[in-house]
## 1
Amino acid sequence: MNRAALLICAATLPLAGCVSFGAKPPKSLLVLTSDAMVPVGQVRDSATARTIVVDVPGSAAALATARVPVEVTPTTLAYVKEAQWSEPPARLFARLVSDTLAARTGRVVISPVQAVGEANDQLGGTLRRFGLDATARQAVVAFDATLSRAGQSGTETRRFEARVPVAAIDADSAGPALNQAANQVATQIADWVGR
């Protein structure tokens, strides 16, 4: 190496500790797991069971992030420090609802691509709340559902909500409480949709 190259390398070494290519990742990521699962190996057939498509719900910008929102006051939001979802909460919630519907109703849950050409029920909606309420010290999941049943001209709507107490407004409390609240809402949805 020539002297000029050595000088350039020596000059850039102090900068190496200053460069960052993103935020420091959290120790772990939050996920949702369904309390109701179809047994492994069980075959379901759309020729003999009713089908349903579960769309990923819409959500407000505050929920379209991997961070966990905290309602500090009715008009103020913050985020739980070091709490982050593995993917957008709306996708996690749609998957949990799909698993719960399949297990509790016996329906075959199919994707929108698979639904082309078949008469299927369709569940959609908007995820209104999916975070913590600091004043009530609760995890809150609220979902405005829409249900189009095959062969019927109208669309049904219904609001679902579940609240679960949290010991603290922190990352360790947020995940389990939101998972429990999401499962309660998914169970209510499955009971509403029916077999």
## 2
Amino acid sequence: MASLASRSAPIISLQDIQAAARRIEGAVMHTPTLLSRTLSQVTGATVYVKFENLQFTAAYKERGALNKLLLMEEATRSRGVIAASAGNHAQAVAYHGRRLGVPVTIVMPTATPTIKVMQTEGHGAQIVLHGDSFDDANAEARRLEAERGLTFLHPFDDPEVIAGQGTVALEMLADAPEIETLVVPIGGGGLLSGVGTATRALRPDIEIVGVQAHFYPSMYCHIGGHDLPSAGTTIAEGIAVKQPGAMTAAIIREVVDDILLVPERDIETAVSLYLQIEKTVAEGAGATPLGALLSHPERFAGKKVGLILSGGNIDTRLLATVLLRDLARSGRMARLRIQLQDVPGALFAVVRLFDKFRVNIIEVYHQRVFTSLPAKDTSIEVECEARDPEQLQALVDGLGQAGFNVQPVGME
């Protein structure tokens, strides 16, 4: 993509990003960029991970928000700022606003999870719940901006925010200069715009790849001329943006080599791998770059790849669901539907086989009434856990040899 575009006057420059780095130094963490030997084995690439989930608010958004706040005149800051967000931008503005003594108002959709409202309130922001969608909340924020004389802080389509996000690249390239390819998540495009600008200036040889969730390909369509809907349910809600920014799209058109789409299943697997292998929590958006390596392995095989783990704010119940689904998909957890006679000892005979094959029983569901089986038969569904798919298959074979009708209850 970068080679096809005609270069115009830059919206931001390397000097803007370097100035932002000096401005925010000490108030935002220089997060580590580390080689992951195990993820390298899993993906076939040499994988370096930038752990932006270690920021105080657990996401890179602090960089752009703080740079923007520090560049405001004191009189402007004293009147207060306002933003529309249900996620990381809200917490970043609230946290650094309180540090600097800036009154902060955040408008969130009414359906925003309570935990996110509480976290943002905990950083000292005034919360306004309005509307059913982000668009509704954004419109209300712009109305309140005019009504109250506040300054609106855009989450991505702002050159000073973009410059702050670009400081991620300065740290990565200094800490892991051997990186050949950068993989960066795209929502509105602020992170990729800043990272791409810095990387093109410092290391024009590095390949820059943006990634989006399959259900929200807005930048992919805008840059590539594709016609796909941006709608659906994704665990990468932090990058579920229907309309990319005007500034960010202009920058990305010039600096990015490729944009890839990542299916939900691979994003879920990436979240699970980060927890299992790196012992770190990644939200869906933050895990999408790793998901790209899983869904496009041939694209990155043998390359030295830098992944930006952009954030770790994921609902704990959602995280639990993702981990359990991954166990099921990997064949380490299953639900078996077993038909047996409704007589004393039948269930015991089944349980004995689970013990014989050392498969752990998690839950048992016994069904006598709501079934089409003969009245003297019953069915049970057993959720179970094994060390690997082979152990589970040995159990299924053993149940069949003992005369039980067994049907694995699959998942899509």
## 3
Amino acid sequence: MATPTVIECRVRGAYWHVKNHPMSGVTLVGWARTLWAHGRSIDAVAFAPRLMFLTCMALANTLAAIADGALRPRWGRTKVRDDPVFVLGHPRTGTTHLHNILAKDETRFAAATTFDVGFPSGFLSSGFVKPYLAKMMDSTRPMDNMALTMDTPQEDELATNQLSGCASPYAPLMFMRDEAKFRKYYELREDHDEYPIERAELEAWKSAFMTFMTKLQYKHGEHKRLVLKSPVHAARVEVLRKLFPRAQFVFISRHPYDVFRSAVNMADKYYWQCFLQRPTVADVQEFILKQGEILHDAYVRDSKSLPREALFETRFDDLDADPVGTLSKIYKHFGWDGFDETVAPVLKEYATSLADFKKNSFAELSDDAKEVINSRWARWFTDLNYEKR
């Protein structure tokens, strides 16, 4: 039985709009791979200005990639540390807020920035153009008005998506009608019952991901631990543990109703800026719901294998109410030292700077919407101990 459409969101917009596009940093090689694999499904006439913009950007990005390539004898020898920290959680659960806070500990951690992930092929050699490229994005995030700069901590999967030619769960932001084709990139499992990935596809993702990780580690030095955040990593605990045996994970959750309302708001305010094909509202809703199912089920299954000292779970409400206290618990759990002396003062200053920040307010969900969430995300309520309301 098909899930009824219970949301309203914009799926049409100014097709000439090119700001904030997640493929702005793609090279000619990556763009050609994307067009070869998905070009037939692109609505080329409707999105001609966007396609022309991305092609022009690919030319410029290729020059930057050549410059970074010349530095490969240096960054290619870098040893990526096997103890990064991953912030896990469904989109719209507060992963960005938590990532920003952890990144404030600059003596211990290094985070990927908007510039790094936006232009992954050339960020090592092209930093001088950041002020000009900043004009291609808004000063705040479209979905929640959080500050957005080229130096803001950002999601590493944005880089992997571009470096791999859209071998990523982020590809539906461009190809929403074809969302089901990209589900195999969530868990990255060759033995998956529903969405198995081919070995060549898995290796393509790993190559793109580790290339970015190597360059990021080189940029900050091997003495820094990387702190990374991409919501889709919640489905990859098993894969990430194999790549990084000493990795630690912080999982953050939020009430399913609040997550759904925030996800719909994000779709309405941002997704239309990414499209290269015209989806329906039902397509967008299914993407939100299916993503929630995949991420939750995979995380609950695989997190059980983590040793206690490798995982800390918290809630958005706790972080929002007391960021310093919540971070203190995280540091104590993992045995990270220096919190009171060096970290707490910085976090208190950061928390004060957010005092006037106004979070989005959303209308109450309809009974039909709640019924859909209760059905499709039923395990969220039981596994994470949230009450239906």
